Amino acid sequence: MTWNVEEFVNAAAVTVDELAAYVDESQRGVPRVVGRRPPGELAERLGLARWIREGGMTVDDHAGFLRTYLAEGTRLHHPAYLGHQVAAPDFPAALADLVHGVSNNPMAIYEMGASAATVEFEVLRWMLGKVGFGESGGGVLTHGGSLANLTALLAARASVAPEAWTEGVPGDLALLAPASSHYSLTRAAAILGLGERAVMPLDVDGLGRIDVARLPEALERVRRAGRRPMALVANACATGTGLHDDLRGIGGFCAANGVWFHVDGAHGASALLSEKHRHLLDGIDLADSLIWDAHKMLRTSSLAAAVLTRREGDLDAAFRQRASYLFYGEQGFDLIGRTVECSKAELGLKVFLNLAWRGERGLGEYVARRYATAHRFWELARERPGFECPYEPESNIVCFRYGTGDQADIRERLMEDGAFHLTSAEVGGVRHLRITVMAPATDDKTLEALLDRIAGAEEATAGSR
């Protein structure tokens, strides 16, 4: 069935109107920030079974469905959204999603999306320049940081054990990483065939940062265990705390000892765009590989994550695949040889349009303001009795405690009525509340209200015991 273009135009107009109202009321903090209605109840409200069974949706039906759909879930543009590290997407990136949804050019093969591939080339060239890899580096965009970490570690494995692709993974490889690393690193080790036991922990300080002075001991432990280091992973920044490892010190150690240095910069690499905060990434140019998520601090919608390598050939060596119906195209232009994905979305367009509208400076200011808001929360919390902050924040992530009660219970009470969305994490083995400042609408009024509600929620929890 061919498109009814007029119907599409009308449906798109309705969609834009509903989404515009959704973002507007979200930014103004009018509705609750999160809804968690049970799936069965929500499915009934949305009429899912009927629509699946009967079809026949009209433009007017679509408007009503979308209104109900958007009323549930999480409003990332809301000032009280302080939860996970997911962007409140800017509208240029949203436009890119619309373009891809219509054109659907899976551009890992150049002939399937020349414009999309060319845009990605230039976005990657920009990213490589920002991290200091320049013309000698290589890159590709993937659907998410977990896949990006896996891809980077495939490049590391190819460098250390090039026979692994055809002969299987040697049993003596090890991955060195702090316990504060993202779970996707351990998952990648298992997927790669190393197994979880091959992930060997690095010594850290009380806040989970790699102790550079004890890296020689860690390397010696690996060797005594009869293993070879495949890669050493550092955080920029750690998912739980938002704190950064000493990239310069770690990079120098890895270079001196011939160890592949991988940086998980999924969240923190965007600080390179902020003059005030780029020092946190000092030494990132020493990495052999790194990842950088655009769907976190570059304000694109999910998902768009970069895998960058200091030497282009290292990324090309990650996959060694043959398929006569695919691998015959434009030499140097097809990206399929660098990714797990074949039908890869037009991810570069989302990053490009945000840059085209806001510029490097605008995105850098966004990062700096979110970091400043998080620091302001830390200042306000320290002034209030009962609040405890284990560290001064370096990014837009802050961990803290209130009182001596169960912090998870406090969080659940805040989430129950949808007034605030925040998370929790362990710091030094102790459960803390955790905020991540992502929405531009979050201000001092929001922060003060959150502190008030936390104190009230803990008192309510204590009273119910």
Which helices and strands, and how do they pair?
Layout: H1 5-27, E1 34-35, H2 39-46, H3 48-54, H4 59-71, E2 73-74, E3 81-82, H5 91-103, H6 114-131, E4 138-142, H7 145-160, H8 164-167, E5 173-177, H9 183-191, E6 199-201, H10 215-224, E7 228-235, H11 247-257, E8 261-264, E9 289-293, H12 294-297, E10 305-309, H13 312-316, H14 347-383, E11 387-388, E12 397-402, H15 407-416, E13 421-427, E14 430-436, H16 444-464
Parallel strand pairs: 3-13, 5-6, 5-7, 7-8, 8-9
Antiparallel strand pairs: 1-2, 4-10, 9-10, 11-12, 12-14, 13-14
Brief overview:
It contains 16 helices and 14 strands.
What does this structure look like?
Belongs to the group II decarboxylase family. Keywords: Decarboxylase, Lyase, Pyridoxal phosphate. Its cofactor is pyridoxal 5'-phosphate. InterPro entries: Aromatic_deC, PyrdxlP-dep_de-COase, PyrdxlP-dep_Trfase, PyrdxlP-dep_Trfase_major. The protein is α/β, with parallel strands linked by helices and 465 residues long. The chain has a domain at 98-354: Aspartate Aminotransferase, domain 2, CATH 3.40.640.10. Helix content is 45%, strand content 14%. The strands form 3 sheets. It has a 7-stranded mixed beta sheet with strand order 4-10-9-8-7-5-6, with helices on both faces. Strands 3-13-14-12-11 form a 5-stranded mixed beta sheet.
